[in-house]
């Protein structure tokens, strides 16, 4: 049995549970209790606030956790980062009222900065030899300058919309973050084996994200050109068709490159192009 700590409610909880579901680990989400055991896999889920996850993994109360890297960095918890999860991307940045001119880190000398991340911030201030007052507040950090609580803020930014609507501008990014899978250092062999099974499934899911399966009919004499357009990493499958001089070509492409590739393939005579969603890629 392995225990994984997941955010109970918030930005990472749905995607964390979706990942478990896609990995074939059934957890009864209707009854989101403090601790829930999977019906078909040796895992139990501990639902916590994100702030608490690094510490419970570090002290062994949970074996694994899915949490923002920002929380790991802030708490300094002694955990191993096993995988980047590819969701929950954000950055933590310093922001100041937009009318003010920014001239580098010395701007913050003698100023006050509101944040929920005092440790990351104090390290940066020390590295830049800046003396500033850190005001720790746990929520609505972005209103601090307008409310006269602080001169600047250090907070999570994703789209940047919150900063703009509060009359602030981002001036320094101190940390890039995404959700990470963390593990304690002293897992038993039994737990390591369960973790390996989970990682095999997680990797197959991660690999399939952002990829599409594409198939088309193509004149046989254009196969060589088509192979050049499609990625070399996964060599395409070519099968002859009943119609003389035509083949069926199958491949996997990055979603971000899909339309460009389709246009080029059409340009050399591809027809009947089908694009399918990939579920898992097992290497
Ligand atoms: O209750 P609990 O303590 O568990 O949750 P929480 O309220 O502390 O955290 P939550 O659910 O808001 O965020 C969980 C994790 O999601 C964070 O630790 C980050 O790793 C990650 N994440 C990704 C974000 C964002 N994007 C994000 N945009 N966390 C917070 N925000 C907030 C930010 O604080 C700011 O208020 O969104 C606002 C900025 O968004 P933009 O898009 O306007 O820039
Ligand atoms: Zn939190």
Spans of at least 5 consecutive residues whose pLDDT stays below 50 are none
- Could you tell me how far the N terminus lies from the C terminus, measured between alpha carbons in angstroms? 27 Å
Strand residues, percent: 25-35%
Q: Oligomer, anyone?
A: single chain
Largest sheet: 6 strands, mixed
Bound molecules: phosphoribosyl ATP, zinc ion
Query: What is the alpha-carbon Rg in Å?
Result: 25 Å
Give the averaged pLDDT, no decimals: 94
SSE class: alpha/beta
Number of helices: 8
The number of strands is 15
SSE inventory with pairings:
Elements: E1 2-7, H1 13-22, E2 35-37, E3 43-48, H2 53-58, E4 64-68, H3 69-75, E5 80-84, E6 90-97, E7 112-115, H4 118-127, E8 133-136, E9 152-157, H5 161-165, E10 168-177, E11 179-183, H6 189-208, E12 211-219, H7 223-229, E13 237-240, E14 246-254, H8 258-267, E15 271-277
Parallel strand pairs: 1-3, 1-4, 7-8, 7-9
Antiparallel strand pairs: 2-3, 4-11, 5-11, 6-9, 6-10, 12-14, 12-15, 13-14
The chain binds phosphoribosyl ATP and zinc ion (ZN).
Short description:
The protein has 283 residues and is α/β, with parallel strands linked by helices. The chain has helices at 13-22, 53-58, 69-75, 118-127, 161-165, 189-208, 223-229, 258-267; strands spanning 2-7, 35-37, 43-48, 64-68, 80-84, 90-97, 112-115, 133-136, 152-157, 168-177, 179-183, 211-219, 237-240, 246-254, 271-277.
């Amino acid at each position: 049995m392995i225990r994984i700590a997941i955010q109970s409610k918030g930005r990472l909880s749905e995607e964390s549970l979706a990942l478990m579901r896609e990995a074939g680990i059934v957890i009864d989400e209707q009854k989101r209790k403090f601790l829930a055991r999977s019906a078909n896999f040796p895992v139990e889920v501990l639902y916590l606030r994100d702030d608490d996850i690094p510490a419970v993994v570090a002290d062994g109360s949970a074996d694994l956790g899915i949490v923002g890297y920002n929380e790991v960095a802030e708490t300094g918890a002694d955990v191993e980062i096993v995988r980047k999860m590819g969701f929950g991307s954000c950055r933590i940045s310093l922001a100041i009222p937009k009318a003010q001119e920014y001239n580098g880190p010395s701007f913050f000398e003698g100023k006050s900065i509101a944040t929920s991340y005092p440790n990351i911030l104090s390290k940066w201030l020390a590295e830049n030899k800046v003396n500033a007052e850190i005001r720790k507040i746990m929520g609505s950090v972005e209103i601090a300058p307008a409310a006269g609580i602080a001169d600047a803020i250090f907070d999570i930014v994703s789209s940047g919309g919150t900063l703009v609507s509060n009359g602030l501008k981002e001036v320094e990014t101190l940390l890039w973050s995404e959700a990470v899978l963390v593990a304690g250092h002293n897992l038993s062999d039994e737990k390591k084996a369960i973790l390996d099974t989970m990682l095999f499934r997680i990797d197959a899911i991660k690999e399939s994200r952002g990829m599409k399966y594409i198939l088309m009919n193509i004149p046989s004499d254009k196969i060589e050109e088509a192979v050049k357009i499609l990625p070399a990493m996964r060599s395409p499958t070519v099968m002859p068709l009943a119609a003389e001089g035509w083949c069926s070509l199958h491949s996997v492409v990055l979603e971000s490159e899909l339309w460009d590739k389709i246009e080029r393939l059409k340009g050399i005579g591809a027809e009947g192009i089908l694009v399918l969603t990939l579920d898992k890629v097992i290497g």
